[in-house]
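Predict the 3D structure for this chain.
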Amino acid sequence: MNTRRIVFSGVVTSAVGVGLGLVMLNLAPCPYSSDLYRNLKQDYLIIGGVIGLLFGAGQETVRQLKRQCDEEDAIADQQVKTLRPLTSLELTRQFNNGSRYKL
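Done. Predicted structure below.
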């Protein structure tokens, strides 16, 4: 797997998450003024960034694993096509034509 792509995707979506945290603050301002709500802006930004990081890194990881699985399936299908067993009809034709066995 390409770790650089996973990290890049996580950082980009983390930035988007921070942006969504800022939008959330502007759309829904907190009417309270207690100590619990004093650092609410920082909390929204951290939560948005972490969720974005996890979502982006997870999505890119799944995308790369899917691509790897598809490649492995294509290789397996190709091997099955090249190594398929002969049917009884093909064996009969080969035997009757004498192409395989001559007595």
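The chain has a mean pLDDT of 81.
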